[in-house]
Design brief:
single chain; 479 residues; alpha/beta; Rossmann fold; Hypothetical protein af1432; five-stranded parallel β-sheet; three-stranded antiparallel β-sheet; 21 helices; 10 strands; globular; binds fe (ii) ion
Length: 479
C-alpha cells in the first residue's frame, strides 16, 4: 500500500494518465472529475496529498479547497488550472496561497514530473516510504495461479530490500504456479531473504511486470543510499546496479519508453556514476569480471558500466557527461528491438550478408524511436547514432572518420565492441581488452587515447606506477 493521493480534475483523460504516472511512483491513487465527489472522497479517505484543479465543477474547486483547509490543515495541496485568471476570479493570489501552506500552483501546460517533484519537494523517498502502510508481522504465504509471461525475475543474491516493499514478491513453484511470499507493504528483512536463499535454496525472486517501475524506483533508492557507503562491499553495489539496469532495460525494450522510466534511467546513471567514482576498489572486481549472458539487457548494462569507467579517466568527465553517456549506453541498441526477432540477440559475427544490412540500420532506427521523446537530450541521440562509426571510416551508418565522430560516441563504441568480445569469447574483462589491443584491425578502428584510458580501468588508482600497461602515467587525459 502506497501513500494516498487524490487527483481531482475535470479532464478524465488527464486523470487516467496522471493516475498511471503516480501509481508507478508507489502512490495509492484515487481520481475524481467533479467537486462534489471529491469532497466526499476526502471525507471518506485519509489522503496524504491532493492535486486539485481549481476549475473543477459541480461544487466549485474553491469550495473543495476551503473544505480541505478547514478539515485537514496538514494535507499537502497542489493547485492546477488552465489559466492564471482563475486565481483572481476566485479571489486568490500566489502569495496568499503560499501563506496558507499550499505547496504549489501550476498553470497549464505542466508536466506530471513537475507535479511529482513539487509533491515530493522536501521529502526523501525514505520519508515517503516511511509514511506508507506497513503490515505487522509476516503475511502468510499464498499460492497463486498466473501465467509466466506476467512475471519478471531477479537473482535473490542481487535483490536488496528496505523497511517496506511496495510490491508483491513471489517464488516460482512450477509453470503457471507461484507462491506469494510477500505482500506489498510487508517488510523484507535481510534475515528473511537469507532464509529463502540459504535454507530454502531459492535462486530467483519473481515480481509482476506491472510493478516494474516500483521495483526500479525502490532499487534506485537503495542504490543511491549504498553507493557512497564504504561499509557495503563493491560486489554488492555492482550486483545491485546490474540487476536494476537489466530490469530497467528489459522494461524499455519490451514495454516501451515511458517518461517515468526516463527519469529513473537518469537516476540509475547517477548511481552508476557514484559507484564508479566513490569506490577505488572497483578495479579489483573488474579484473576478474566476466559475463556470458548475451541478452540485450545484460549487454546494455555492461556497455554502460564500462563506458562510465572509461569516461572516469578523462579530465573533462563530469556527472552531467556521465548521465548523457549513461543514457546513451543504456539505450544504444534500442533500434534492435524493432528488427526481426531472430536478429535481436545474434552476434553480428554470425550474421549473413543480408542480415548484416538490416542490423546496420539499428542506430538510425534507435534515434527514430527516441525522437518521440522530448525528454531525451539531442546529445544522447547523437551518441546512439554514431556508436558504430569508427575512426578509420569503416563504421556505419555514415562511415564518418576520426574527429567527425563524437568522442563520447567513440567511447560507447569501444565499450560496445569490448563487451561483445568478452561475451563471445567467454573471457575475463582484462583478457578481452588484451585481445582487442593485440588485433591491429581493432586498434585502427579506435582512438589510441581511448584504448589507453580503458587500460587504466584495470589499474589500482592509488598507485602512480602504471607498470607496463601504459607509458603515460595515471593522470587523466583529454580525448
Ligand atoms: Fe549497436
Ligand atoms: Fe551494442
Amino acid at each position: 500500500m502506497g501513500v494516498k493521493l487524490l487527483l481531482a480534475d475535470p479532464n478524465s483523460e488527464w486523470l487516467k494518465e496522471a493516475a498511471d504516472f503516480f501509481s508507478g511512483l508507489c502512490y495509492e491513487v484515487e481520481t475524481c472529475s467533479n467537486g462534489k465527489r471529491s469532497q466526499l472522497m476526502l471525507y471518506n479517505h485519509k489522503f496524504f496529498a491532493t492535486i486539485l484543479n481549481l476549475e473543477i465543477q459541480d461544487h466549485p474547486g474553491i469550495q473543495v479547497l476551503k473544505f480541505i483547509k478547514a478539515n485537514y490543515p496538514s494535507m499537502k495541496i497542489i493547485l492546477i488550472m488552465s489559466r492564471e485568471e482563475t486565481l483572481k476570479e476566485n479571489g486568490l493570489d500566489r502569495a496568499l496561497l503560499a501563506k496558507q501552506g499550499i505547496v504549489d500552483v501550476f498553470i497549464m501546460p505542466y508536466q506530471l514530473r513537475e507535479l511529482q517533484q513539487s509533491l515530493e519537494g522536501h521529502q526523501s523517498f525514505e520519508e515517503i516510504i516511511s509514511r506508507s502502510k506497513t503490515r505487522e508481522g509476516v503475511s502468510a504465504e499464498e499460492e497463486v495461479d498466473s501465467s509466466d509471461d506476467q512475471f519478471m525475475k531477479v537473482k535473490i543474491a542481487e535483490f536488496f530490500s528496505t523497511k517496506s516493499v511496495q510490491f508483491d514478491v513471489f517464488i516460482r513453484l512450477r509453470e503457471g504456479k507461484y507462491l506469494k511470499i510477500l505482500h506489498s507493504g510487508d517488510t523484507f528483512s535481510k534475515e528473511r531473504i537469507d532464509t529463502y536463499k540459504n535454507e530454502k535454496k531459492v535462486e530467483y525472486l519473481y515480481f509482476k511486470k506491472e510493478d516494474r517501475i516500483r521495483f526500479v524506483r525502490l532499487q534506485n533508492y537503495i542504490s543511491e543510499k549504498t553507493a557512497p557507503n564504504k561499509a557495503v562491499a563493491i560486489e554488492t553495489k555492482v550486483g545491485l546496479i546490474k540487476n536494476l539496469a537489466e530490469v530497467y532495460v528489459e522494461g524499455i525494450y519490451t514495454e516501451g519508453l515511458k517518461p517515468v522510466l526516463i527519469d529513473q534511467g537518469k537516476a540509475l546513471c547517477g548511481n552508476i556514476y557514484e559507484v564508479v567514482h566513490n569506490n577505488s576498489d572497483l578495479f579489483k572486481l573488474l579484473r576478474t569480471y566476466s559475463e556470458k549472458n548475451n541478452s540485450l539487457y545484460a549487454h546494455s548494462y555492461m556497455v554502460t558500466l564500462f563506458s562510465s569507467m572509461i569516461i572516469k579517466q578523462f579530465v573533462w568527465e563530469s556527472k552531467i557527461v556521465n548521465e548523457s553517456v549513461g543514457m546513451a549506453a543504456l539505450l544504444h541498441d534500442i533500434g534492435r528491438t524493432v528488427q526481426p526477432a531472430e536478429l535481436k540477440e545474434m552476434s553480428p559475427n554470425n550474421m549473413t550478408k543480408e542480415q548484416l544490412e538490416i542490423y546496420k540500420k539499428h542506430p538510425e532506427e534507435g534515434v527514430k524511436i527516441l525522437n518521440g521523446y522530448p525528454q531525451i537530450q539531442e546529445a544522447v541521440k547523437q551518441i546512439i547514432l554514431q556508436h558504430h562509426e569508427r575512426i578509420n571510416g569503416e563504421g556505419f551508418p555514415t562511415g564518418l572518420r576520426s574527429h567527425k565522430i563524437l568522442a563520447l560516441a567513440q567511447i560507447v563504441g569501444v565499450a560496445d565492441e569490448f563487451v561483445q568480445i568478452m561475451v563471445d569469447g567467454a573471457l575475463k574483462a582484462p583478457e578481452a581488452l588484451k585481445k582487442m589491443l593485440a588485433d591491429p584491425t581493432c586498434t585502427k578502428r579506435h582512438s589510441a587515447i581511448i584504448l589507453e584510458n580503458f587500460l587504466k580501468v584495470f589499474i589500482d588508482p592509488g598507485k602512480s606506477n602504471m607498470n607496463s600497461l601504459t607509458s603515460k602515467g595515471p593522470t587523466k587525459q583529454s580525448a
